[in-house]
Amino acid sequence: MIRRSLGALAALFLALGTLLAFTGTAAAATITIPIDSQNGSGISGSATLTDLPNGQTRVDITVTGFQGGTPSPAHIHMGTCATLNPAILYPLTDVVSGKSTTVVNVTTAALLAQPHAINIHKSAQEATVYVACGTIAAGAPTGLPSTGGGGMAQQPTSFLPWALVAIVGTALVAALGVLRRRAAR
User: Fold this and answer.
1) What is the CATH number that goes with domain 30-136?
2) pTM of structure
3) Apex 27 CA angle, 24 and 28, nearest 5
């Protein structure tokens, strides 16, 4: 009786943990920030930051207003667009024809923990001329639906708690196997 209950409980933990671990990672957090024109460039658009399951963030920049196909360097800096630290923190793929996609080794949560900014330069030759900038800040609009009337964005399900449930389920299955072997002796 005890072994049967333990087996059912183990199977439940294992199935629940596995199911929730995979469904929890499917809904990655996305944050969209506006990219505003600087120095009369007329270049503006948005950047979407998407959490990846390995502690990285994908940065997708889409802007309009570029003249010609000259690559424009883009970077993530500390600070805001108004108080930008000129030191490059994370280099991004050059913006070409209004688009850039880069994976950086930092979580979106870390970028939101203190002010950061995405800065786009006119060209590699004119790197001191900023043509567009977007501040990465807590409270940026997310790509996830709002729930209830509070206006708080839904947060993605974390992988770790469900992985622990799967581990506990696996441990219970292993314990059940040991009990069955002992009973068979």
Assistant:
1) 2.60.40
2) 0.62
3) 110
